Amino acid sequence: MITQKLIALADAPYRDFTAGLIPTVDKARIIGVRTPAMRSLAKELLKNESEKAMAFLEELPHYYYEENNLHAFIIAELKDFEQVMKYTERFLPYIDNWATCDTFAPKIFLKYPEETLVYVQKWLASADTYTVRYGIGILLSNYLDAHFSPVHLEWVTAIQSDEYYINMMIAWYLATALAKQYEATLPYLEAKTLAPFVQNKSIQKARESKRITPEIKEYLLTLKVQKS
Which fold has domain 113-227? Predict the structure, then answer.
């Protein structure tokens, strides 16, 4: 049983550490398995027990946090884009924490940027917190370099949410965009039309970046707004 394989990899101190980082997940649902071990298990299952691995992808919802992470890592190892996207779409509504959301990154999406972007746009319009966060995260990781378009900034800054985990990802996206696409991104901060939390957190994260010059950091400080 795949769950037993995860339990065999348990690290009690790491379980306590993980529980402290992910307050939205009950500690009883955390086994305490390190990420490299889960990635290795995903590869091992697909290589030696592929039928069990694929059956595991049909077993939603899972109980343990690590079961969800393993699920994500198995999907990420698949080689067919349509298959990966089918399982991704099915899995996203079951993601219930920022860590599973942010570590789920199928490399095959990089090979199909235009096709993936169609799904990203749909995810951004979702009513589910972590589906929206996931869409922003894919834009951050895959679309701030060669595949960047200014319209992506419009999509992200148009998101209105009271959800902390969405707004934090918007801020991470904008801070990274300031480092990589400064001229296109700066006007969104200068306009001061973002939610105060997003505006100020974006500036904070950008000022913490080593990729942004001291001069720009000083200017960004002038763009902070008072929280209403």
Answer: 1.25.40
